[in-house]
Amino acid sequence: MQDILINWSPQETRVAVVEHGAVQELHVERTLERGLVGNVYLGKVQRVLPGMQSAFIDIGLERTAFLHVADLVAPFTPGSRGAAAPVDREPGRAAQVPIEKQVFEGQSLLVQVIKDPIGTKGARLSTQISIAGRMLVFLPQDNHIGVSQKIPLAERDALRQRLLALAEAAAQGDGGQGASSHGGFILRTNGEDASDAELGDDIAYLRKAWSRIRELALRMPPMSLLHQDLSLLQRVLRDLTTEETTSIRIDSREQYELLLRFGREFMPQAAGKLQHYTGERPIFDLYNVDDEITQALGRRVQLKSGGYLVIDQTEALTTVDVNTGGFVGARNFDETVFKTNLEAAQAIARQLRLRNLGGIIIVDFIDMARDEHREQVLAEFRKQLARDRVKTTAGGFSQLGLVEMTRKRTRESLAHMLCEPCEACGGQGIVRTARTTAYDALREILREARQFTPREFRIVAPPQVIELFLDEESQHLAGLSDFIGKPISLQAEPAMGQGQYDVVLL
Q1: Nearest CA to 372 among 412, 338, 349?
Q2: Staple partner for 179: which of 92, 168, 276, 478, CB 3.0–4.6 Å?
């Protein structure tokens, strides 16, 4: 049984996946940190530069974006009845015709951002549109059926034929003449073990998204955003919701209604599980999620038996050390070690999901003398890893008693998302970022405002946090002040560490 809790605020979206009352996964997305890569715009050609074989395209941003002739493939221009005919060719090699013979100033062009703006440089664009799904990538202007090169070579041909059959069936269902006239697909690594039903759902979603882009391109003015990579809220319905999910609760009425409309159009089964949370307590307080986040940012994890884990994340790999701590077995030392390792196997698998740790992971279980104990611990560990939606592989015990495993990297770890290297310790430790501290202070004020009615709230924090409130977070601070109906003042305290703050009631 699985519940999904969504805590939404204008500056940050946080999602917790809860199973049997315990938090299993945490996802965080910040509004100011969302990139533009993947966004599809209806751009307008501002200048064509034959000498550079490139063009500058206005897509409504502060700086014009850059399109090179190598990225000019099968363009779709409004006014045509559909997309340019799909072609069977490699992206980047098709544009042999000079750019000045393909585009002209004032022309409207469907483009996708492939590189975010950096410094004084504008975004880089391509006319080769690709739409990412949960397990597939859709190439509407290409008829190629491909498989990720990370999937073993022996399995690729069978997966390619299977995907081709599903794509052709979907195209025939749309009244088409086969997959070749309806674009191509690339199977992502996490789709290797997907069922036909899951792949079929992804194909239907991606085709529908492309149809919507084409429709908007024909009726929207130039410099309009036509498609944006799914936000964390929308990915909850696409990626996190399963048959075991009983409810998806969100604490914002506005976002609930927006998500409901999106879900009814693209994922009706998941949309039926959406609920608007209206309780008095903050939604994350229902399962002490904030406490879980605090623990997930620390090195030490306490086990119920009295043992503990020490987790260290480095650039090359992550190490997990299991210790008995204060646990004393009822029978003998072997039983003490076995029970501690068994509990640790469950806790480690959960911590990998909570912290989103990827890459090479080395687990140092306490040495066990009996072979049957090692086999049972390893079996339990693999059983818990099998619950992970991210692909994992685990070997057996090495000669040194270590278990080597890998977990696919899907996004930044929780520590990298919420923390930054500490300047005071030369990068050996981590502290919460100024923005994380600022958001913690805002949530604390909202929590206090529900219990007390002071004349004024005052945030006492380090100068870098106060500076953030006066600049980038000023609108969020003013919005919270209006919402609670009380003034919020600021006081810089240089003696405080970056992760520290106080909320004073005046």
Answers
A1: 338
A2: 168
Q: What is the dihedral of CA 142, 226, 40, 28, to 10 degrees?
A: -120
Residues 6+ apart with CB under 8 A from 336: 324, 327, 328, 329
Which one, of 92, 57, 50, lies nearest residue 71 by Cα? 92
Per the DSSP assignment, residues forming a β-bridge with 359 are: 407
Q: 427: which 2 tokens?
A: 């990068």
Q: How far is residue 166 from each of residues 145, 187, 192, 198, 431, measured CA to CA in Å?
A: 11, 12, 14, 11, 48
Q: What is the pLDDT of residue 474?
A: 92
Q: Residue 242 is encoded by which pair of tokens?
A: 């399963």
pLDDT for 90: 46
Enter the tokens of residue 77: 């221009």
Residue 85: its pLDDT value, please? 39
What is the per-residue pLDDT for 179?
41
Torsion of CA 104, 108, 109, 114, to 10 degrees: 100
Q: Which helix (H) or strand (E) holds 37?
A: none
Distance of alpha carbon 414 from its chain centroid, rounded?
11
What distance in Å separates the CA atoms of residue 302 and residue 362, rounded to the nearest whole number?
Answer: 19
Q: Which helix (H) or strand (E) holds 294?
A: helix 289-296
The answer to whether residues 13 and 6 touch, using CB atoms and an 8 Å cutoff, is yes
- pLDDT tens-digit map of 85-112: 344 444 444 446 898 888 899 999 999 9
The predicted structure's pLDDT at residue 428: 65
First vs last C-alpha separation in the chain: 45
What 3-state DSSP class applies to 338?
helix
| CA gap 405, 319 in Å, rounded | 10
Say if residues 456 and 500 touch (Cβ distance below 8 Å). no
Token pair in block for residue 350: 């959960």
Task: Give the DSSP H/E element, type plus range, for residue 446.
Answer: helix 434-449
Amino acid at 446: L
- Residues in the chain predicted with pLDDT less than 50, given as ranges, are 80-95, 176-181
Which pTM does this prediction carry?
A: 0.72
Question: If DSSP codes are grouped into helix, strand and coil, which group holds residue 414?
Answer: helix
- Interhelix angle 474-484/463-470, nearest 10 degrees: 80
What are phi and psi for residue 303, nearest 5 degrees? -95, 155
Residue position matching structure tokens 């090692």 = 374
CA-based torsion, 349, 353, 355, 358: positive or negative? positive
**Which residue in this structure is represented by tokens 């106080």?**
502
